[in-house]
Specification:
Strands 1-2-3-13-4-14-18-16-17 form a nine-stranded mixed beta sheet, with helices on both faces. Strands 11-12-20-19-15 form a five-stranded mixed beta sheet. The radius of gyration is 23 Å and the shape is globular. It is of the alpha/beta class. α3 links the parallel β1 and β2. 29% of the residues lie in helices and 26% in strands.
Length: 463
C-alpha cells in the first residue's frame, strides 16, 4: 500500500495551515483565511441585524476573543426548527504562557517567567529552539483619535531555550527518572547580562525591555505603544511529512489543530457546487478555546456560545427545542493510537492504529458523549462510502480524558459522538500521526454534512 496523491495533497494543505498556527489566535486567523477564501461572510455577535438577515444558501462566520471561531452554512431548503448538522473541535494546545510580570533573571542570564497551560509533556520543551506568539494590544491613531487594536504577533526566529542539566550534574536521572520543578526548571533563557547589561530590578517594566523591543519590531510600532499582550511559547521547527515511506506527519498541536482543519475543510467543501441547495438544515463548525483546561471560559465550550448561537440562528423560540432534537454534533478531538513500545497501555480489544481510520471514542461514565445511536449514524455513513473507522475504550484501570462533547451535549441536549484521528505523543511539543487518516477522516465528516439529515429521517428513537 502506498500513499496516494490525494492523501499527499490534503496533508500538504494541513501543513500550510498548521505552520501558520503559532497560537490559538493564529489558529483562528488561519481558519478565517480558509473561510473567507470559500466565500463565508463575517458577522458579529454585537450586531443584531447580522442575525436577522441570514438567508438560505448563505455562508457566515464570527469569532469570539480572537481565539474561538464558529462558521455555518444555511441550507437552501432550511426553515426554523429544521435543526443543525455540526462538528466541533478546539484551537488551544498545552503551552508555556508568558506571565503578567515575566521579568526575571539568575546567574547572569535574562529569563522569562512562564506559567504552564494545560497538561503538557513539559520534558519535551527542553533543548528546543523556542519563540513566542499570540496577540498584543497596540495603541494607534485613527481620525485624530486614540484607538487600541488587538494585533497578532509572532517572532519568527528562535529567541528562547530551556537547556537541560548535564548528566554529570544529574546522575540520579538513571535511577529516579527525569524530574523537574515547574516553577524553577521551566524558566527559558532569553539572553545573557554580558551582552544586554544587568536589568534594573527597580524599574517599573513588567517584562524585559529586550523582549518588548523584539515584539515592537514585529508589530512595527514603538515599544511604548504595546499596552498588554497574551503570549505563549512555541517551537520554531515547522511541521513536516516524514518516514521512510513519507507516511507520518509531525507538528505542534496536532491535538487539536488537525481536527480543526478537517472540520473546517469538510464544511467548506460540503457547500460547493450547489451542494447546499437541497439541504434542510444548518451545517455548522465550532472551534473553541480553553478545552485543555476544562472549557470554562467565555470562549470555551462550557460557555453560552453554542446555545446562544443556535438560538440566534434558529430565530424562532417556539421551534428551538424541536430543532435541537433534530440536531447532531461530531465532537472531533484527537485519539490515542496504540504505541508499539507501550501496547499494554491499551485495552486488548480497543487498539486504534495509525492508517486505520477515524476513531469512535466511547466511555460508559460519559467522559465521551458517544452512544449506540450516535455510533450507528456515523457507521452508516462510513459503510456507505467504504471509509475505515475504529473504536476505542480506555482500560478499566486507567483514567479517561474528556472532550467538548459531553459538555455541549449536556448544555444543549444535542446528540453527540466523540471521534478523533489516532496519534502518538499527545501533548508533546511535537506530535505525530499518519497521513492516510487525514483524508479518510475528512471524507467521513464531509459526507456527514452532506447526508446526516436524510439518514436521521429514517432513524426512529424517541417519538
Amino acid at each position: 500500500m502506498e500513499v496516494t496523491p490525494e492523501e499527499q495533497s490534503i496533508c500538504k494543505e494541513f501543513l500550510d495551515y498548521v505552520n501558520g498556527c503559532h497560537s490559538e489566535f493564529h489558529a483562528v486567523s488561519q481558519t478565517e483565511n480558509m473561510l473567507k477564501k470559500a466565500g463565508f461572510v463575517q458577522i458579529s455577535e454585537k450586531v443584531d441585524s447580522d442575525w436577522s438577515n441570514l438567508k438560505p444558501g448563505g455562508k457566515y462566520y464570527f469569532t469570539r476573543n480572537q481565539s474561538s471561531v464558529m462558521a455555518f452554512a444555511v441550507g437552501g431548503q432550511y426553515k426554523p426548527g429544521n435543526g443543525f448538522s455540526m462538528a466541533g473541535a478546539h484551537t488551544d494546545s498545552p503551552v508555556l504562557k508568558i506571565k503578567p510580570l515575566s521579568k526575571t533573571s539568575g546567574s547572569g542570564f535574562l529569563q522569562v517567567g512562564i506559567e504552564p497551560y494545560g497538561g503538557g509533556l513539559w520534558n519535551t520543551w527542553f533543548d528546543r529552539n523556542l519563540t513566542v506568539a499570540g496577540r498584543a494590544i497596540v495603541e494607534g491613531q485613527k481620525d485624530g483619535k486614540t484607538v487600541y487594536e488587538c494585533k497578532l504577533v509572532h517572532i519568527p526566529r528562535p529567541i528562547l531555550c530551556i537547556p537541560n542539566l548535564a548528566i554529570h550534574l544529574n546522575r540520579n536521572i538513571y535511577t529516579e527518572g527525569f524530574k523537574y520543578n515547574k516553577q524553577t526548571h521551566l524558566l527559558p533563557i532569553l539572553a545573557t547580562e554580558i551582552l544586554t547589561g544587568k536589568p534594573d530590578e527597580k524599574s517599573s517594566g513588567e517584562h524585559h525591555t529586550l523582549l518588548v523591543d523584539l515584539l515592537a519590531k514585529e508589530l512595527k510600532v514603538s515599544p511604548d505603544k504595546i499596552k498588554d499582550f497574551d503570549l505563549g511559547m512555541c517551537d520554531t521547527q515547522p511541521a513536516c511529512i516524514h518516514g521512510a515511506k513519507e507516511e507520518f506527519i509531525s507538528a505542534r498541536g496536532l491535538d487539536n489543530l488537525m481536527m480543526s482543519f478537517i472540520c473546517t475543510k469538510s464544511l467548506i467543501d460540503s457547500t460547493e457546487n450547489k451542494q447546499l441547495d437541497s439541504e434542510k438544515q444548518i451545517r455548522l463548525v465550532a472551534l473553541f478555546d480553553n478545552e485543555e483546561i476544562g472549557s470554562r471560559s467565555q470562549q470555551g465550550a462550557a460557555s453560552n456560545m453554542m446555545s446562544s448561537v443556535l438560538k440566534r440562528i434558529n430565530g424562532d423560540a417556539k421551534s428551538y427545542d424541536s430543532a435541537i432534537r433534530k440536531s447532531f454534533l461530531i465532537s472531533a478531538d484527537m485519539a490515542h493510537a496504540v504505541h508499539p513500545n507501550y501496547s499494554s497501555k491499551h485495552e486488548s480489544n480497543h487498539r486504534p492504529m495509525i492508517h486505520k481510520g477515524l476513531v469512535l471514542k466511547k466511555n460508559g461514565n460519559q467522559r465521551y458523549a458517544t452512544n449506540a445511536v450516535t455510533t450507528f449514524i456515523i457507521e452508516q455513513i462510513a459503510k456507505t462510502h467504504k471509509i475505515p473507522i475504529q473504536k476505542f475504550v480506555v482500560r478499566n484501570d486507567m483514567g479517561c480524558g474528556s472532550t467538548i462533547g459531553p459538555i455541549i451535549s449536556a448544555n444543549t441536549g444535542v446528540r453527540t459522538i466523540d471521534v478523533g484521528v489516532p496519534q502518538f505523543a499527545m501533548h508533546s511539543i511535537r506530535e505525530m500521526c499518519g497521513v492516510k487518516d487525514v483524508l479518510s477522516s475528512y471524507k467521513l465528516i464531509k459526507n456527514f454534512f452532506l447526508e446526516f439529515s436524510k439518514i436521521d429521517e429514517s432513524l426512529k428513537v424517541d417519538y
